[in-house]
Amino acid sequence: MHRYRFLLSLQWVILTLVAIALIPTMIRLGFWQQHRYEERTARNGLVSTALHAEPVPVERLTSPGHTVTRAEKYRTVTATGTFDTAKEVVVRRRTSSDGQVGFHVLTPLVLTDGKVLLVNRGWIPANGAQTAFPKIPAPPAGPTTVTGRLMADETTAASGIKNVDGLPDRQIMLINSAEEARRLGARVLGGYIQQTAPEPKGGSPEQISDPGSEDAPLNYAYMLQWWLFAAAVPVGWWFLVRREIRDREEAAAQPQPEESEPAAV
């Protein structure tokens, strides 16, 4: 066992402790990536199911005060009513498909039964000072049937967008049906929709693209990568031990230079 005494040196003790600490850390990171993979896969499944479901009347899924669930989010819904542009607002700091900063246009749609549906008609550029209400292309006049994806109310916790006070007139940070119900003094359906039809004249506002899918396979690859790293640590440690032993044995086998005799006086 004297061949392994070098493992008791400070350098090798530190190296061994680091290797021992790395293994469970990498295993835990692998399990975290597995959780992310499963979470994203489930989310992609829900979104795909919702996007491919048959359109239904909006009031079949939501009502005033209703909280849109994960299963209801992105469902295609239809509604018939009249746009109330006098009470239209814009949502600040929203980006277009190519990354430009502008506004989302939120227009109340007064339904035939008197309730109000919030319709996100799409994105427009900030064509002036951020403090001024922008020029907005008008929606169709009179009774209109719209189609869109049902969305949950936005919150700071879910979006990371801070809701601030003192904004310019008719500008908001988050789309929230409860806040809009208080502002409008109306029965507002829970959540809102991202309009997909009819398409706006001239392509403005720019309609919001579908959410697409999250890259779940990437998390799966990271999961395998972390677990392979964990398995490689003891293999690498043993490789270094064997190399150290070989180097020491080769050094010991080298002939030592003979000491020269002192010259005669």
TrEMBL record:
<keyword id="KW-1003">Cell membrane</keyword>
<protein>
    <recommendedName>
        <fullName>SURF1-like protein</fullName>
    </recommendedName>
</protein>
<keyword id="KW-0812">Transmembrane</keyword>
<comment type="similarity">
    <text>Belongs to the SURF1 family.</text>
</comment>
<dbReference type="InterPro" id="IPR002994">
    <property type="entry name" value="Surf1/Shy1"/>
</dbReference>
<keyword id="KW-1133">Transmembrane helix</keyword>
<dbReference type="Pfam" id="PF02104">
    <property type="entry name" value="SURF1"/>
</dbReference>
<dbReference type="InterPro" id="IPR045214">
    <property type="entry name" value="Surf1/Surf4"/>
</dbReference>
<keyword id="KW-0472">Membrane</keyword>
<feature type="transmembrane region" description="Helical">
    <location>
        <begin position="220"/>
        <end position="240"/>
    </location>
</feature>
